[in-house]
Amino acid sequence: MVEFEELLELDLMHLMEAAPAVAAYRQQPIDVQYPDGDVLRTYTPDLEVLLTSGEALYIEVKPQDRLSDPETSNKLDAVRTHLERDNVRFEVLTCTDIRRQPRLDNIRWLYQQAGTTPVTPGAAAFGGRQLASSGPHTIGSARAKLRGTGLDPATLLLMGVCACDLDQPVSHETPIHLAEEHSDGRFLISSRLGF
Questions:
Q1: Complete domains list, the chain, with CATH
Q2: What pLDDT sits at residue 20?
Q3: Beta pairing, strands 89-93 & 56-61
């Protein structure tokens, strides 16, 4: 099971890399001391996520079947209760949350299409302005419009400058738009998390 959990965590990191609301994240960030009856126990979250809003949250990644284990469920409930007292958000994500299709495959496809040269926020904004000046685009027509600029639509999508419907299979024919135009088109890690 550990290997499965690690693969889920890797898939989650792909999603976080494509979530404009995620400013940063780190694995196993801290040890949390929480009360379990009369005993003080230690728990280490899988990830700490810092959102662009400034909010931080801890994430635990678990296979769905592990959540039905009473010991695991009680532990996570105790951790959640403790963290909520300190106004810290805590989410348990499962395979269903992380491997939602076609979203995960779409993000993998975008990573394959994206350039390898880092793009600054200023350059990305320039790319957004280029696309806005020439009307509606598909991923393919945006690639043609951006030719010669060092930018590509997949990178702009991953950076959150542009958006598309990730709940439908993505291809070069997929319509894209500037993210500011349709805030509901932003990449979401899970509908429960809301970013």
A1: 2-98 (3.40.1350.10), 103-185 (no CATH)
A2: 82
A3: parallel
